[in-house]
Design brief:
CATH architecture: 3-Layer(aba) Sandwich
Low-confidence stretches: 133-147
Strand content: 15-25%
Distance between the termini: 26 Å
Shape: globular
Strand order of the largest sheet: 3-2-1-4
Number of helices: 4
CATH class: Alpha Beta
Number of domains: 1
Largest sheet: 4 strands, mixed
Mean pLDDT: 85
Radius of gyration: 14 Å
Structural class: alpha/beta
Helix content: 25-40%
Order of helices and strands: EHEEHHEH
């Protein structure tokens, strides 16, 4: 493992990973590996950063909440265990799931810490208008970027 310069600020990060048939299982595996390597750049072990993640196609198929893991090693293992499902990519449904179920104090979201939602997908949702509305209306201060 190479030495990573760890960010020294608090943030709650949720990775939303497309597991649809357009991605395919090989690219999905690469996306999980990429996300797991990003964990080296966050201070998970020191408690500054909490990480949650979900994989989705027509619905969220596997996930873990922000309070589920407290070490970088267990976060990485949990990311690598996310499930591939195939099917259509309903990004709007995944974002709604994140907003309703994962961005809550019961799921480990800290009220005094910024949230960062990172979406890894190959393109638009099966309902692109709903995805855009979900982002605009419900993630007021969250950075969104489609890769």
């Amino acid at each position: 493992m190479r030495s990573a310069q760890v960010a020294q600020y608090a943030v709650d990060v949720i990775f939303v990973i497309d597991a649809s048939r357009n991605i395919g299982s090989a690219i999905f595996a690469q996306a999980k590996f990429f996300v797991s390597q990003m964990i080296d750049y966050f201070d998970v072990d020191g408690g500054l950063v909490r990480v949650g993640a979900c994989s989705y196609s027509a619905r969220v198929v596997s996930m873990f909440n922000l309070d589920a893991h407290t070490t970088a090693a267990t976060v990485k293992a949990a990311i690598m265990s996310l499930s591939y499902s195939g099917g259509n990519a309903d990004t709007a449904a995944a974002l709604a799931y994140v907003r309703i179920f994962m961005l809550t104090s019961a799921a480990g979201d800290r009220i005094n810490v910024p949230n960062l939602i990172v979406i890894l997908t190959d393109g638009p949702s099966t309902d692109p208008l709903a995805a855009d509305v979900s982002i605009i209306c419900n993630f007021h201060d969250t950075l969104y970027r489609e890769f």
